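Hi team,

Below is the intake form for Cysteine dioxygenase family protein from Fodinicola feengrottensis. Please confirm the fields before the structure is written into the shared record.

FORM ID: S-0412
PROTEIN: Cysteine dioxygenase family protein
ORGANISM: Fodinicola feengrottensis
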Amino acid sequence: MVAPFSSVLEQTVVSPVHLEPYLLSPSVLTRTAINQRVAALAADTDRWQSLLHYSTDERWYAQLESNPYYDAWLLSWTPGQTTELHDHGGSSGAFTVLTGSLREVVLAAGLPRHVDRPAGSTVTFGSKYIHDVGHAGHGPAASLHVYSPPLSTMNYYAIDRGEVLRTRTEATETPERGWPRHPALATLTAVS
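The structure came back. Fields below:
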């Protein structure tokens, strides 16, 4: 005799299953999960410290992790190195300053404002975040960046007569590159 469905269901034992936060959304980490990932990687100094390389000729970076949900990058900075005003092509992210200090130009309501980010600072941002980052001190600096979904395109911007204009979109599999400085970053080497 076959047991009725209801009695089979009553006999089924359901075990709790732990799912990583990124498995709850098929392709994107939550901002909280991104922040937790960047914090965990930053705390794992054995993972990144020996990899760091500094170049005065060009910005240096290395990919620490890559999967369908996020990618993680280690970047080094020497005085005067900056990025261009950009977003991350629909990816959300976070970065933490590991050593030294960085200056970030953030567009808020279309207006640029600069914020100094000393070692230990973490910034978590959404998919529409537009910023420029540069070295803000003497000696080397390093930062760790996590993007979700992984970087695939980046949009670059200029400010013309108070208007934010997208200048181009580029396909990319690497973190932001060095480009002309935003005026708020022009005095970086003078910052102590």
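SUMMARY LINE: Residues 81 and 134 are 6 Å apart (CA to CA).

Thanks, M.
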